[in-house]
Amino acid sequence: MYLMTWNPENSQIEVSFGGHITKSETSAFSEDIHDMLLSKQGHEYEVMVDYSTASTLDKGVSEMFGEIRETCLLSGAQRVTFITRSEDEAATLTNSRLHDVLQGRERYMAYPA
Fold first, then answer.
1. Reading across the β-sheet that carries 46-57, which strands appear in turn?
2. How many domains does the structure of the chain reveal?
3. CA 42 to CA 1: how far, in whole Å?
4. CATH of the domain at 6
5. How much is the pTM?
6. CA torsion 56→62→64→66, rounded to 10°?
């Protein structure tokens, strides 16, 4: 299950996932965020995806998140932030996307304990 909202104070699309994240749920999210991105064209905004409380991710969900990240950036997001389930996961994603992280376009962090 996920919840997507617009935070006007931060000019941010905020998405929170919990429980078991399935490919079908991620596919529905992809469609929903596409519609939200279209409504924000011409505005400066960021996207934050928090899946720190997800218990499991179906095989392929991580790759789908990567595709969604690219869609957000290509649609005009100033930065996309992922809040991961662990510091190790955040470090792995940061290292694999280091160029974009250093440019400030992407950020990966673990949920603070």
1. 2-7, 12-21, 46-57, 80-84, 106-110
2. 1
3. 29
4. 3.30.750.24
5. 0.93
6. 150
Full residue range of the structural domain in which residue 100 is found: 2-110
Distance separating alpha carbons of residues 87 and 110, to the nearest angstrom: 5
H/E stretch holding 19 reads strand 12-21
Q: How far is CA 50 from CA 13, 14, 16, 17, 87, in A?
A: 11, 8, 5, 6, 14
Question: In a structure prediction context, what are the per-residue pLDDT tens digits for the chain, which is 113 residues long?
Answer: 899 999 999 999 999 999 999 999 999 999 999 999 999 998 999 999 999 999 999 999 999 999 999 999 999 999 999 999 999 999 999 999 999 999 999 999 997 65
